[in-house]
């Protein structure tokens, strides 16, 4: 059964080399049973043709705001109102700016201004353009207005630069569309997710930290939100954009993270993906420690940080229905993870090996892909290597399945009683 059968998508293709991905997106959407109408901007027409877009969508392609024929047959108001969802892919910096400021000087921007349906944007641009404060301000404004966002991703760009700005792949966009229009398995649920590292202050300048980038945790927060959950993301210091539609709480230390997690309860689901520091300096100096003439470095006495996963997993009241921890191991992965599952009192642990691989490259921290294992109380599953986004989507799917199984079991018990 097609999950998007009967749904109507209005796809706006703006200018940028990523426009070629829109062709595959059309094919995937139609394969799921959706009808797709397309607006091709002038910029987009430099990268893909109206003929190719029309051939894949089997619909007329619209591009001219001032076309008497187009306006007579299908005006810009009808284009926006007859869609269930408007997808802008790629969403150029220019079109994002127009959407933010309510400009309407072409068909695409006019349709967006007249829209009364949800809008999903897939940003695609040069990393410097993406990181520009003007673009980031525009994105923050759109998020606050309820515009949904998928991507961008980090990687090599067509211009030869590397960084954030790559448009999400069509398969990821398809899942984002399903998250908006399909049956949302986690609707009504509250999910708590932690992400990134913690920083433990030595003095106002120095800290003890770790290599976590937060990419996996942020991807999980996005995936759970797309599955319909209301998500609170407690994030340590990261250089990542906030996931769209997610409430983000910023912390630095393990103690701050624990307090933020407690404040976020009650929750139905808790995923502790953050790499929390195990120790902190017993005393944090309020002034910078100066070098002395002595050759020895200052002694730093460490004390143990609170165990966030164990604390939440063993709550008597307000314990989430499903508590999932993460484990980063350098050796004896299965043995260590099974022991950790028992010790922490959680339901699942997602584990991965960290450290250098055979070529000397880091296996997980900071990378776009990951190799994980899912340890439950009965199984130890090996998941194929995949992007962190794909792993997040798979985990969200498994969580939804587990929650659904719990609901079915509860209903059976109620019938018996």
Structure description:
By secondary structure, this protein is α/β, with parallel strands linked by helices. The protein contains 14 helices and 22 strands. It folds into 2 domains: 174 residues, Flavin prenyltransferase-like (Rossmann fold, 3-Layer(aba) Sandwich), CATH 3.40.50; 205 residues, Rossmann fold (3-Layer(aba) Sandwich). Helix content is 36%, strand content 22%. The strands form 6 sheets. Strands 13-12-9-14-17-18-20-21 form an 8-stranded mixed sheet, sandwiched between helices. A 6-stranded parallel sheet has the order 3-2-1-4-5-6, sandwiched between helices. Strands 7-8 form a two-stranded antiparallel ribbon. The longest helix is centred in the last third of the chain and has 29 residues. It is globular. The mean pLDDT is 87.
Secondary structure class reads alpha/beta
CATH topology of the largest domain: Rossmann fold
Integer count of domains: 2
Compute the gyration radius: what is it?
24 Å
Number of helices: 14
Q: What is the distance, rounded to the nearest whole angstrom, between the alpha carbons of the first and last residues?
A: 35 Å
Strand tally: 22
Please outline the major beta sheet.
8 strands, mixed
CATH-defined superfamily of the largest domain: CoaB-like
What share of the residues lie within helices? 25-40%
Task: Average the pLDDT over all residues and give the rounded result.
Answer: 87
Poorly predicted parts: none
Strand percentage lies at 15-25%
Please state the overall shape, judged from the principal axes of the Cα atoms: globular
